[in-house]
Design brief:
Number of helices: 2
Helix content: 25-40%
Oligomer: single chain
Shape: globular
Strand order of the largest sheet: 1-2-3-4-5
Strand content: 25-35%
Distance between the termini: 15 Å
Largest sheet: 5 strands, antiparallel
Radius of gyration: 11 Å
Number of domains: 1
Order of helices and strands: EEEEEHH
Number of strands: 5
């Protein structure tokens, strides 16, 4: 599970088996984990986050979308 970025209390990461799915990122804080598709950015699954927090996370993912897509392509092209 490579960590792609840390944003405040959030860790953004991929699972190594994720290559069979469309581009996405997992976001973790404590025991909460959400999954966001990257093209376009949208919530796929929420795991314990409040709606307000999910909106904040989605904004952060959107702001970093290009870098996350680049990290996805780099990681899964190996």
């Amino acid at each position: 599970m490579p960590t792609i970025d840390i944003i405040g209390p959030y860790r953004l990461f991929f699972y190594s088996a994720d290559h069979k799915e469309p581009m996405h990122v997992h976001v973790e804080r404590d025991n909460n984990v959400a999954k966001f598709w990257l093209d376009p950015v949208r919530l796929e699954r929420s795991g314990g986050f409040s709606r307000k927090e999910l909106r904040r996370i989605e904004a952060e993912v959107s702001d970093r979308r290009e870098a996350l897509i680049e990290a996805w392509n780099e990681f899964f092209s190996k």
